[in-house]
Amino acid sequence: MRVDVTGAASDPLVAGAANIDYDVDFVIAVDAVKRRLLVGVFGELDSFPAFEAYANFNGVKKTLFQIPPPVGNTPFNLLGSAGEPVVAAVSFPY
After folding, report:
1. Residue pair 68/51 in contact by the 8 Å Cβ criterion
2. What's the order of all strands across the beta sheet hosting 2-9?
3. Which residue in 88, 85, 81 sits closest to 43, CA to CA?
4. Number of domains, the chain
5. Bridge pairing between strands 84-93 and 51-57
6. Contact 49, 39 (CB under 8 A)
């Protein structure tokens, strides 16, 4: 299964606020031979603020990624589209 998640949102109370953008694909697959559920993510995130994603299967939660903004980045780095790559994967026994 593959799910594309694309978003762009800004603060509606701040005139001209830049969007926080992301465009990622989550992939879920089953390895029947090794009896594992695989969860992966790949795509692009904005360079501000921090982003994180988790996978949960049968009550077990695993971190896909926790990405802080690069040192020194501020909301001014939100201008433009997402461009910071993210690739991560975890697996769960079943």
Report:
1. no
2. 2-9, 20-31, 36-45, 84-93
3. 85
4. 1
5. unpaired
6. no
Lowest mean pLDDT among 13-17, 37-41, 64-68: 13-17
**What phi, psi does 75 have (nearest 5°)?**
-55, -20
Range of the domain at 67: 2-93
Contact 72, 88 (CB under 8 A): no
Structure tokens at 42: 């790949």
Q: Is a pLDDT exceeding 90 seen at residue 16?
A: no
Q: Kindly tell me the sign of the dihedral angle through the C-alpha atoms of 12, 13, 15, 21.
A: negative
Task: Mention every residue, 6+ apart, whose C-beta is less than 8 A from residue 94.
Answer: 35, 36, 37, 57, 58
Which amino acid, 2?
A: R
